[in-house]
From TrEMBL:
Database matches in InterPro entries: Cbl-bd_cap (IPR003759), Cobalamin-bd_sf (IPR036724), DNA-bd_dom_put_sf (IPR009061), MerR-type_HTH_dom (IPR000551), MerR_fam (IPR047057), Meth_synthase_dom (IPR036594)
UniProt key word Transcription regulation: yes
Organism: Pedobacter africanus
GO molecular function, one term: cobalamin binding
Record-given protein name: B12 binding domain-containing protein
Domain HTH merR-type residues, every copy: 6-75
Entry keyword set: DNA-binding, Transcription, Transcription regulation
Length: 295
């Protein structure tokens, strides 16, 4: 027997980025995607309802009024969304499309969206306006239990693989004054996407990188700095559960490094970072690009 996923209206709100009262208004005024009910009369939505709502939001975000959408059949709505799908520079549509593909574990669809966006906008803009917002949303949904951990891992691993492909494509420019960077994740941080993107930017600028990934003990970093002699160390902080401890984590890293520390990731823009010598916070993609290109 197939286990049907059931979403509450608060789940739907988080998944599609539309307030619950707006979804209810669509239902009352236009009979758009009325919820189903359990045997005990509890309202819920299933995967087909979610897909339909994602399509409605995609059209609405692109100028279609809800009153007009309500007059269309499911097939007509799907056809219009297919036309939008090829507008790779449309960040809102592609963000919704990635969410839809991740929920369905559709690797081909997810990969095609990544390819289309990168070919249209380049990796830097795609990361800034599509992938980082998408990963932030997925992280929040995973934290709240709205999506399964497997869906979050499915999406993040496909993005990770694609960034590695883009890194391999770079013909590293000759740079006589190239600097050395050690890239790693501090303990309790497992998301490598931002760190891999930093590696992409550094290689693109012609700098040398020693990429360590996650789960590297601080004492090993300390030893490695003595032998590799980097100009900078670089970490990324994105896990939501680290937010309250962010300055403690940064402080602990700095206790084990004696070179300037670059810190990027979504948490840097969301929490107040204590000012310290040799600490350089990079709050967004523009900050990362500007800083690294000016070195």
């Amino acid at each position: 027997m197939i286990n049907v996923k059931k979403y509450s209206i608060s789940d739907i709100e988080r998944l599609i980025g539309v307030k619950a009262h707006t979804i209810r208004a669509w239902e009352v005024r236009y009979n758009l995607v009325p919820p189903k009910r359990t045997a005990t009369n509890i309202r819920y939505y299933d995967d087909e309802d979610l897909k339909m709502l994602l399509n409605i939001v995609a059209l609405n975000e692109n100028g279609y009024k809800i009153s007009r959408i309500a007059k269309l059949s499911k097939e007509q709505i799907a056809d219009l969304v297919k036309q939008l799908n090829t507008e790779w520079g449309n960040e809102t549509v592609q963000l919704l499309n990635l969410s839809n593909a991740a929920l369905r574990y559709d690797e081909n669809d997810f990969s095609n969206i990544l390819t289309g966006c990168i070919e249209e906008m380049g990796l830097i803009k795609t990361m800034d306006v599509v992938l980082f917002p998408f990963m932030k949303r997925v992280g929040m949904l995973w934290q709240s239990g709205t999506i399964d951990p497997s869906q979050e891992h499915f999406a993040s691993n496909l993005i990770r693989d694609r960034i590695i492909v883009e890194i391999d494509k770079i013909e590293k420019p000759e740079k006589k004054d190239a600097l050395r960077f050690i890239l790693f994740l501090p303990e309790a941080e497992m998301h490598e996407t931002g760190l891999l993107f930093a590696r992409y930017l550094l290689k693109r600028c012609g700098h040398e990188t020693l990429y360590l990934g996650s789960e590297i003990p601080y004492l090993d970093i300390q030893k490695l700095i003595k032998s590799y002699k980097p100009d900078y160390t670089f970490i990324v902080l994105t896990s939501l559960n680290l937010g309250k401890d962010i300055n403690k984590i940064i402080g602990r890293v700095m206790d084990h490094v004696d070179v300037p520390l670059l810190v990027a990731g979504s948490l840097i823009s969301e929490f107040d970072i204590l000012v310290k010598d040799k600490l350089i916070p990079l709050k967004n993609v523009c900050d990362m690009v500007d800083f690294l290109e000016e070195l």
